Amino acid sequence: MLRYTLRRLASALVLMLFVSFVAFILVFAAGDPAVRIAGESGSAADAARIRAEFGFDQPVWVQYLHWLAGLLRGDLGHSFYFNQPVSAILLPALATTLLLGACAICFALALALPLGIAAGRFPNTLLDRFALLVAVVGQAMPSFWLALLLVIAFSVDNQLLPASGIGHWQNYVMPTAVLGYFAAPAVMRLTRSGMIATLETDYIRTSRAMGIPAGRVLRSYALRNAIIPVVGVASAQFGYMLAGSVVVESVFAIPGAGQLAWQSILRSDLPMVQALVLCFALIYVALTFLADIVNAWLDPRMRG
Amino acid sequence: MSVLLEVRDLTVDIATEAGTLHAVQGIGFEVRRGETFCLVGESGCGKSLTALAVMGLLPRRAVRTATAMRLETTDLLAQSERALENLRGRRMAMIFQEPMTALNPAFTIGHQLTDVLRTHTNASADEARARALFLLRRVGINAPEARLSQYPHQLSGGLRQRVLIAMALMCGPALIVADEPTTALDVTIQAELLHLLAELQREFDMGLMLITHDLGIVSRIADRVAVMYAGQIVETGDVEQIFASPSHPYTRGLMACLPQPGQARMQALPSIKGTIPSLVGTLTGCRFRDRCAHAMPACESDITLRPAGAGHDYRCILPPAHAEAVPA
Amino acid sequence: MSDLAVPVLAPARRRRWTRHPGLIAGSAVVVVIIALALLAPVISGYDPYDQDLLARIVPPVWMDGGSWDHVLGTDQLGRDYLARLLYGARVSLLIGVSAALISGVIGTALGVLAGYFGGKTDLVISFLITARLALPVILVALAVVATIGSSLTVVILVLGLLIWDRYALVMRAGTQQLRSADFITAARVQGCSAWQIMRFEILPNLANNLIIVATLEIGQAIVLESALSFLGLGVPPPLPSWGLMVAEGKSYILFDSWMITIPGLALFALVLAINMVGDGLRDVTAPEGRN
Predict the structure, then answer these.
(1) Predicted structure pTM score
(2) Three-class SS state of B136
């Protein structure tokens, strides 16, 4: 178990290094950032000054190493727009997004797991078709449209929930629902197929042949087997959800990391953009790493 | 010996796209306490479904009917699913063919063993553990303490099957149904496990219903035998009767296929030509007639079981018991 | 992503095609939308770029103040809504199919190479796939479009270069399965080059998987484009994009919520239909029932 953990940790670290490089390179995607920051009204002299000031005149890999060294010291860079350290702005925003994401994934699991288990237990019944309908609709519906529909229904037509901000818990209801519904279908489908496959195995048949009551077979045995692949998917979905939060945060005016990323892109606040892309990528890598470890713990065959 | 399991007119039908598949057609047999009863037949003859029907573990699409199915005094047909769950593992237990997949990979051997006992009795964790250790030793696993905390993937196929035998014995059932328990294992381990099963059956005074396609196994371990073909029992009797005077052409064909010591080398192994008939739709007459050298017009009508000797029945209109087996 | 069964799929049987309600319904809706998009100039006489500042935000015909002049009303610049909706269908379909094609080429190439050669090639490509999965796609797309400037071509290229991961995963798994098949060994023994084997033996056998993934990716590309346009960094105005229309309608949410509902509904219907086609194809070619 320990060796497996260390191996996975090593590959996770290599991955993090690679994505950090990609995140850094991103802003150099097309042309000279100095020119872009100087703007349309800037002159060549302005651009040159900016270049020198921010170090763009150095080779890219040197700039990357500077940045990386800073990261390891905890310095995420200096925001062009706010004229403050990136971390001062980014971390509170990230906390908001993570809170929203946590609520959303709980909602998603609360919706998807029971539905998936029930659908897997009773395949090809009305319940199953309903579950699949929920999944299919969730995968097709654009999140911004669902968000706006909810706003229309609950804020405009009936003043039940606030449409923006994060002051009260009510603010989190609609964003959680939209974000969670985005992640639920994949989890539901996998739980369902995992349940169907598990209930057909020889070892579940053995349990039934030994007279273990059907309810307990489902809860204590089959669930444990079926849940294994779901852990991986759920954590990946959490990662996608965080990255996709930009849409939801924009509709509900939530000052989270997604919103910050969008605005920073529009403002050409390069250090902020680099740091945010890096953060989201790192969170994903960390989540999948943790999921692998949990998987290994759940499935004894995967250890060592 | 008292009758442990009585089955009369068991039928299993399966709905398929092409029509109803009559997998088991009106078979009847008895298993007595202290006796090993073997159900023999080739793949697809319905013997596994018979075992599942007895245990009440048929798949959803399969429909079971019978005029009688009794485990000692309990009518198995009249039991609710909950009552059947109570019986399974406690008074009747089943061992399946494929040990590699029959144990749950996410739980320890000890957990799976003790859970059976604790489900059916109010044994404590220690008592269940003690019983598990006792049985693991009894089925020939040395140093069982270590095995309790191991996972199935850490055991070989033979060991896993021993664990499954121990699991079946946890509550001391009266009837064991074993569906080809050694087919998936090495020949050397086969012999050991069969010997073990026979010993256990005698020691715990159980009834053992053994399903197999291997006549060699039957000759070594059975007390009574029923030969199945295409969903019907075509011959039934004591093991000596079946081997000494096989009366149904199919049984005789099976006997002829057994390699004999002293057989001349380079002699072609006899086989029964043809394949089993389709079991879909209405079936009439002798199911074996397309492969039988002695088929005649009278075989077109349904044939009942008739006696070939005391306690020896067969389903053929030919006279019983020629001295030597005649290949088809 | 991981709900796709990866076994190499059997050819669909004609009977199962016609019996699958989801497949039929989805295909019908997709065909209708394609037809509507192609017949846009015939159905609506208006040019989607024509502004009529005297007739702004006219509601659809079934609401108060609506008229048959503009069946679905007009937007904030007086442009006919039905026209923008129909021409918007062209944009969505064009972007969806193009992006799916580009990402298909990239993903299939990577997946087949990784699955066929294994070893270091597989290690590198798998690493690339994982790295791609770690990156927040929307943010990266937003950043690139903001940097380069938005246009139809840019959006197509950015999406195409980003969403190849599912192709790569499915093709890789499928190729790995086929690699050990006897007919592949036979081809190698006959002296076929790796390229020939991949082109003539492996790819045709993975065609079913490829079509299913492609269908689902078209849907994903359409949703992604609409999200980008909604955030103002997708298709540039005045091009009619459904996502953009929803964004423009957001300011009028209090009294004219139809400006949001209608294009969103169109998006939902199109993506739903496409997904149903993809799922239906998977059901029809998979050996067992839906998983």
Answers:
(1) 0.82
(2) helix
Task: Write down the residue that tokens 């818990």 correspond to.
Answer: A169
Those of residues 185-224 in A touching chain C at CB distance below 8 A are 186, 189-190, 193, 196-197
Q: Which two tokens stand for residue A191?
A: 């739980």
Quote the CA–CA distance of B215 and B41 in Å, as a whole number.
9
Instruction: Give one DSSP letter per residue of B197-212, joined into a string.
Output: HHHHHHHTT-EEEEEE
ipTM: 0.87
Read off the pLDDT band of C2 (50, 70, 90). Answer: very low
Number of domains in chain B: 1
Chains B and A touch (3+ CB pairs under 8 A): yes
The angle formed by the CA atoms of residues A174, A177 and A178, to the nearest 5 degrees, is 90
| Greatest alpha-carbon span in chain A | 84
Does residue B151 fall inside a structural domain? no
Encode pLDDT of C29-38 as tens digits.
999 999 988 8
Cα gap B208→B1, rounded to integer Å: 13
The whole-number average pLDDT for the span A219-228 is 89
Reference B102, options B180, B36, B46; nearest CA is B180
CATH number of the domain that residue B196 is part of: 3.40.50.300
Q: Specify if B40 maps to a domain.
A: yes
Query: Which run of H or E residues covers position C77?
Result: none
State the nearest Cα–Cα gap between A30 and chain C, in angstroms.
6
| B148 Cα to chain A: minimum distance (Å) | 14
Residue of C nearest to A250 (CA): C231
Name chain A contacts of C23, Cβ cutoff 8 Å: none
Give the residues across from B145 on adjacent strands: none
* Distance of alpha carbon A207 from alpha carbon A223, whole angstroms: 13
Which among A250, A278, A252, A275 is positioned nearest to A263, based on CA atoms?
Answer: A250
Contact call for residues B52 and B58 (beta carbons, < 8 A): yes
Put simply, the answer to whether A225 touches B104 (Cβ < 8 Å) is yes
| Inter-chain CB proximity C146 and A265 less than 8 Å | yes
Do strands B36-40 and B224-229 pair parallel, antiparallel, or not at all (unpaired)?
parallel
Q: What is residue A203's predicted lDDT score, i.e. its pLDDT?
A: 94
Query: Phi, psi at residue A267, to the nearest 5°?
Result: -90, 5
Q: Is B304 helix (H, G, I), strand (E, B) or coil?
A: coil
Let me know: does C290 contact C279? Beta carbons within 8 Å.
yes
For residue B179, give Cα distances in angstroms to A89, B9, B91, B276, C158.
68, 21, 17, 21, 60
- State the residue for tokens 């902020």: A272
A31-65: buried (b, 16+ CB within 10 Å) or exposed (e) per residue?
eebbbbbbeeeeeeeebeebbeebebeeeeeebbe
| Chain A residues whose beta carbon lies within 8 Å of the beta carbon of residue B153 | 300-301
Residue B136 lies inside a defined structural domain of this protein: no
pLDDT in tens, A251-288: 888 999 999 999 988 888 888 888 898 899 889 999 88
DSSP structure class, residue B306: E
Average pLDDT of chain C is 85
Tokens of A223: 């669930």
B182-213: pLDDT as tens digits: 888 888 888 889 999 999 999 999 999 999 98
Find the domain containing B96 and state its range.
Answer: 3-101+174-258+268-322
Cα torsion for A272, A278, A283, A286, to the nearest 10°?
A: -150
Distance in angstroms (rounded) separating the CA atoms of residues A147 and A143: 6
Structural domain contains residue B60: yes
Tokens of B41: 């037949």
**B14 forms bridges with which residues in the sheet?**
B21, B62
pLDDT in tens, A61-119: 888 888 888 888 888 888 878 888 888 889 999 999 999 999 999 999 999 999 999 99
